[in-house]
């Protein structure tokens, strides 16, 4: 029913079923994992009115399991990407895996999926740092590129008194670059694909 993917590793499509409604994937060498993708395989949907809460579990310094809610998958949202790299120092939260004695080793973490009512899922709050940025990568790249270009061009700014005449060079006033930068960012915010028209 579920799959788990870590970049650079094989897809895991056979979770360990630890209860009728609970599944876990092992994540060896979890210290070197930044993001995890959890998805439904498309073979078996959730029963009507049900979904899956997704948890990250890692062993704390004493070897005890620390569970943190990452988010959810449902029939309407069958996959999700979660950032787990910043969670290893956080605090645990309430979870449905508490009574189970799942083996923990220092270098293996787990992704747990608990099948629950959609109403129950809606009342839970995932850890904020697990959410992957909602800004698409193209928009994020464009904003970073604009910042980099503006900072680079500004680093060469000179006053008119500092300028030395050179007929082979053209000079662009810094306020022109700033105006272009602000206009481009405004248009990008309004419509990330404006440049295609």
Itemize the secondary structure elements and their pairings.
Elements: E1 2-5, E2 16-19, E3 22-28, E4 35-40, E5 50-59, E6 65-73, E7 79-83, E8 108-117, H1 118-123, H2 137-154, H3 174-190
Antiparallel strand pairs: 1-4, 2-3, 3-8, 4-7, 5-6, 5-8
Helix pairs in contact: 2-3
GO cellular component, one term: cytosol
Keywords: Cytoplasm, Nucleus, Protein transport, Transport
Pfam family, one: Hikeshi-like_C
Question: Quick gist of this model?
Answer:
By secondary structure, the protein is an alpha+beta fold. It has 3 helices and 8 strands.
Polypeptide structure, described:
The protein has two domains: 122 residues, no CATH class; 57 residues. The protein is 21% helix and 28% strand. The strands form two sheets. Strands 2-3-8-5-6 form a five-stranded antiparallel sheet. Helix 2 packs antiparallel against helix 3.
Q: Biggest sheet: strands side by side, in what order?
A: 2-3-8-5-6
- Total strand segments: 8
Q: Give the termini distance in whole angstroms.
A: 42 Å
Radius of gyration, Cα only, in angstroms?
A: 24 Å
Overall body shape: elongated
Order of helices and strands: EEEEEEEEHHH
pLDDT average, as an integer?
A: 81
Unreliable sequence segments: none
Strand content: 25-35%
Helix tally?
Answer: 3
Main beta sheet: 5 strands, antiparallel
The structure class reads alpha+beta
GO molecular function, one term: nuclear import signal receptor activity
Main location: cytoplasm
Protein name: Protein Hikeshi
Organism: Serilophus lunatus
